[in-house]
Amino acid sequence: DHVLYGLVKPTSLWTYNQESNCIEIHLNKQDCQYWPRLLLDSNQNEILTTMNYINHVGLDNQMDLQSNAKPDLTLKPPFNVGQLEEVDFPMSEDETDLTLQRLDHETLKCTHQAYLSGHQWLFKIYCSNWGSSATHAFCIRHDVDGIVWLPLCQSNLTNIKSGKDQCTWKHVSTLQAFGYVLASKRESRFVSCPVLSDGCSLKFVAVADYTRRIYVYRQPLPNDSKDTELRKRITVNSLERQQIVHVASQHVITLPTNEPITGFVATDEPYPSILVCTQSTLYLLPLDG
């Protein structure tokens, strides 16, 4: 009696294995739409979940009660729920259950655990020059930024067995405002960046939609660059000096086809570029800088 989340092709089939007494179902989606779940549930398709709504509205009500009880207080809520946008909320309640664990390769036991509630997982990053036993780095959202963490190898954690508490993840890069940028891409399918090297920050991150559009995110350029600058304005009663604020930039590339994007990778060797694969064409998109 339940309806699938999206349309499927007539080529979908099912098979029954009599020996294992199992039914195997193969569903071929009719389009490239992302399915957050198998079955359609109208109650869970609301981006603004009931839990988040109650939390934000409850905060406003609490601040209003305090203001009414003591008219002399000037305390105001830090934000207005009416000013929030869709990208400020998770796609579903499932995203709040993310847990990061570190497992010891000898004892196979969990040595460290962190709950990432409110910190969305963005993408993973391939690493080099950290030794053959290095694992992938990962980027999670903190506020509006993307924070890149590198799990340290077992050989680098010499103080763990001696009982001393030591951080097992190393902060290697910060992608300014990338968390907000990626959250606004509702049709994104792939996220890729060049291989991360020791001592080097990420030069750019590329995001691909299901079809056509490629977004290239670049970090702020050095102070001696000729890129556009934003200058902090000075108010009438402020003695603060004028400051130059460098911002990250985003470029949009549109492919000349509506075919679904089936493969996507970003690289900086031998030069910064993006490889995009569709059903019939392989595109090489070189980037300047």
UniProtKB/TrEMBL annotation:
It is found in: Cytoplasm; Nucleus. The keyword Nucleus applies. Coiled coil: none annotated. This is SJCHGC05725 protein. Its main location: cytoplasm. Keywords: Cytoplasm, Nucleus. InterPro entries: HSP20-like_chaperone, NUDCD1. The keyword Nucleus applies. GO terms for cellular component: cytoplasm; nucleus. It comes from Schistosoma japonicum (Blood fluke).
